[in-house]
């Protein structure tokens, strides 16, 4: 049995609007440092309006979603209108983003709608996963896109 200080870590996927403001600002500060737009932690926290103590409290425990899914597999669920060429259009967009399709599952269309599940290897992605999802959602035949899960 593990000691309390050696507990296995649990991770959760949480929508941004559920995060406390200090966690959001910690992510902003980390991004400023990564992009070289802030010379130091002190500069970054001042730019986003966060205390240094709050930054240090959260910095090792919160990460942007794209950092978690890099070098991983992600499974996306789509609810689509049944039109000719929709799947090939989605797959072209996924390939353009640098993802490798591992599996495709599609239901038989009922009442003009179909469900598609894609498992993607994201290790070669050229863009942030959130940008890809936004682009996929913007396709006129896509009614819904959800992240079902991620895995190594």
UniProtKB/TrEMBL annotation:
Domain ACT: 75-150
Gene3D superfamilies: 3.30.70.260
InterPro entries, per the entry: ACT-like_dom_sf (IPR045865), ACT_dom (IPR002912), UPF0735_ACT_dom-cont (IPR008310)
PROSITE patterns in the record: ACT
Taxonomy, superkingdom: Bacteria
Family matches, as SUPFAM superfamilies: ACT-like
NCBIfam families: PRK04435.1
Family the entry assigns: Belongs to the UPF0735 family.
Listed name of the protein: UPF0735 ACT domain-containing protein HR057_00050
Species name: Calidifontibacillus erzurumensis
